[in-house]
Amino acid sequence: MNMVTKPPLITSEFCRYLSLSKQEFLSEAGQEGLMMQCGATYIDVEIPLPDFPNELKSENAMIETFQVSNDGSCLPLGTNRELIDAFAPCAKLMATAVLKSLRSFGVEIDGAAYLTASITMCNEINGNAHFDDEQYHASDGVGFVAIIGDRGGSRVARESIPHASINDDGVPVIFDQQSADDFDSGLMLIHEGEPQELLIFPQFGQLHAGPALVSAGLTGFRRLMVMRAKTKTKNTVVSSSVKRKRRRRHA
After folding, report:
1. What are phi and psi of 228, to 5 degrees?
2. What is the pTM of this model?
3. Could you state, in chain order, the average pLDDT of each consecutive group of 10 residues for the chain (251 residues)?
4. 69 - beta bridge partners?
């Protein structure tokens, strides 16, 4: 069996997961104690990552964060003007493409999104499997991660993994360390993106990792952009629509 496959093009079926609540997402595996891993999908858009003069490159990672509005506009939150100016055009392209694509499939963000842009030495990149969000709040949306980088694409699990029983709201979901070990050892089914391919996957409970650049012996720098956002559940989206209709009727 081929353990590593390419992620599919974004579809409404995949985007359905992004509009679930965390409680609903936990039940998708169909078995108590298992968390579904739906893998990743990609958006077919070209996002040119910026070139950097040598004087901007450093042995230490450089990172800046943009706050993303619903229209895709990006407000820089840091102070490194060279890095901000270099990434600002492609950050807006990425944010606009992600929001437009997800919105076309009915996925709405809940509040502002945040986009981090970075340049990091390849030998400093941690390629171990991890979760971006394991905090269980039953009614919260699953959220999403959008990511694009050069020198290798992200890797995302696509087979269910076990977790400990959840007895309360507001606690972390505890996953079996063996799942991360299997991921890192190539014993788990995964999606692996191409360099400079824009991938999307759930933020809650989705096991993923960057490219294994150290083991591949790659040197130099990696440019990366990561956008994260909370998402509205379908119930939230519907209730907002109902409220608007009610206001119109009473106007």
Report:
1. -130, 145
2. 0.89
3. 94 97 93 94 95 65 93 94 93 98 97 94 83 95 96 93 91 91 93 96 96 71 94 65 38 40
4. none
